[in-house]
Amino acid sequence: MARGRIMAAVRAWFEAQAFVEVETPILQVSPGNETHLHAFATELAAPTGERSRLYLHTSPEFACKKLLAAGEKRLFTFARVFRNGERSALHHPEFTMLEWYRAGEPYETLMQDCAALLAVAAQAAGTAQFSYSGRVADAATAPERVSVADAFQRFAAIDLLATLGDTAKLAAAARAAGIRVAADDSWSDIFSRVLVERVEGKLGVPCATILDHYPALEAAWARPAKDPRVAERFELFVCGVELANAFGELTDAGEQRRRMEQAMADKQRLYGERYPIDEDFLAALAIMPPASGSALGFDRLVMLATGAPRIEQVLWAPVSGA
After folding, report:
1. From the centroid of its chain, how far is CA 306?
2. Residue 69 in contact with residue 15, Cβ under 8 Å?
3. pLDDT tens for residues 225-243?
4. Cα 207 versus chain centre, distance
5. In 126-202, which residue ranges form alpha helices assigned H by DSSP?
6. Contact indicator for 203, 211 with CB cutoff of 8 Å
7. Least confident stretch, 8-12, 102-106, 267-271
8. pLDDT digit string (tens) for 115-132?
9. CA angle at residue 252 from 249 to 253, to 5 degrees?
10. Nearest-angstrom CA–CA distance, 174 and 163
11. Contact 280, 297 (CB under 8 A)
C-alpha cells in the first residue's frame, strides 16, 4: 500500500540525514496550549486510588523539546496525536503527525527538508504530481517561497504589515475586500478569515508553496525574524492544503509562558476551558539549544500523493462515529 511505502521512504530519508527516531508518550499533563485546539481528557488512577487529570497530546512537541534539552541534535517521530472536534475531508480526531527537529540549524533548512520529503513521497507513491479537489501540483518543482504579507497583497489587496495590531484598520481592509467581519472579531480572527477565504486556496499550485514570515502576533512558538514585526514561521501548502507548520523555535521560557497564558486566557473566554501549563516543558525550554522544528500531517501527505479525496481513505481503520 502507498501509505506503507511512503512511510518507509520518509523514515529512510531521515535516517540517511543522521536523525534518530524517537517515541513520545501520548499521555501528558498538558495536551498543548493552543487557543483553538481541543483535547481528549482522561484520568490516571494511582495504586492508592488517587486520580489525576491527564490528556492525550495534540502534538509531540513538548516531549520532543525535552529531548532536545537533554542533548539530542536531530530527531524525528511518527506520532499518533488526538484533536477533539475535528472531522472533515482533511481532519480526523486521531491522526499521524510527522515531527522533526534540528538543534543548532536555521529554520531555512526545514524548507529544504520539506522539498526533499515531497520528492521522496512522490517517488514512493509512483507519481509525478500531487492532487486534491481538482488542484494539481508538480512534485519535481521546488516550492515557491512567499511571505504572508506578499500573499495578502497578491490575493486580497491588503497591506497586512500596515495593519499589525490595529483591529479597526484590518477590519476596514477586509471589508473593502468583500470579507465579512463581525463586531467582536479580534485582529487574529480577521487575519485567519482572510487567510482561509482568500489566500490558502490559491497556494500550492502549480507547485508547492512555502508561506513564510507570519506576523509575530500569529507565531506563538516562533522566535522573531530580523524584521521583528514577523516571525520565523512558515507553512507548507500543496494543492491548497496546509501540509506542514514550521518554526525557528522560541527558547525564551519566560516569553513562552506569557504567550501560553495569553492563549489559555483566550481559550477560557472563547470556549470556557483552559489547559494546564507543563512546568517541566518550560524548565526544559530554558536550557534547550537554539533549534528549528516542523510538524507535517502525514495522512495528508499520503492523500496528496495518491489523490485520495478524504483522509479516511488513507487510514487503515478510521475512528468510528459521526
Report:
1. 22
2. no
3. 999 999 999 999 999 999 9
4. 20
5. 148-156, 167-176, 187-194
6. yes
7. 267-271
8. 999 999 999 999 999 999
9. 110
10. 11
11. no
Residue 192 burial by Cβ neighbours in a 10 Å radius (0-12, 13-18, 19+) = middle
282, three cell numbers? 518550560
Give 313's Cβ-side CA count (13 Å radius): 14
The span from the CA of 181 to the CA of 278, in Å, is: 35
CATH among 3.40.50.150, 2.115.10.20, 3.30.70.260, 3.30.930.10 for 2-127+250-314: 3.30.930.10
Scan for cell 521512504, then name that residue: 9
What residue type is 145 in one-letter code?
Answer: R
Residue 119's pLDDT is what? 98
Pairing state between β 27-28 and 51-56? antiparallel
Tell me, what DSSP letter sits at residue 49?
S
Question: Which residues, in sequence order, are CB contacts of 260 under 8 Å at separation 6+?
Answer: 33, 220, 277
Contact 114, 304 (CB under 8 A): no
Degrees, nearest 5: CA angle 177-179-180: 145
